[in-house]
Amino acid sequence: PLMRDGFPQFELRRCECGEPTLNERCMACEMLRKMKK
């Protein structure tokens, strides 16, 4: 996978936040949701 900003780029996937996005954005979004709970 290509590296960008130190994060591996994988195919789009559907994350907890709802909309499909790159894994790095999914992880950031999921972390924000966990912190809010």
Description:
- By secondary structure, the chain is of the alpha+beta class.
- The chain has one domain.
- 38% of the residues lie in helices and 22% in strands.
- The longest helix has 14 residues.
- The model has no long low-confidence stretch (mean pLDDT 61).
Which labels suit this protein?
single chain, 37 residues, alpha+beta, two-stranded antiparallel sheet, two-stranded antiparallel ribbon, 1 helix, 4 strands, 22% strand
Summarize the model shown.
This protein is an alpha+beta fold and 37 residues long.
Topology:
Layout: E1 3-4, E2 7-8, E3 13-14, E4 20-21, H1 23-36
Antiparallel strand pairs: 1-2, 3-4
**First-to-last CA distance:** 32 Å
Segments where pLDDT lies below 50 for 5+ residues? Answer: none
* Tally of DSSP β-strands: 4
Secondary-structure class? alpha+beta
SS summary, helix count: 1
Domains, number: 1
**Helicity, as a percent range:** 25-40%
Bin the strand percentage.
15-25%
Order of helices and strands: EEEEH
Could you report the average pLDDT, rounded to the nearest whole number? 61
Shape, per Cα inertia axes? elongated
- Largest β-sheet summary: 2 strands, antiparallel
- What does the radius of gyration come to? 10 Å
Strand order of the largest sheet: 1-2
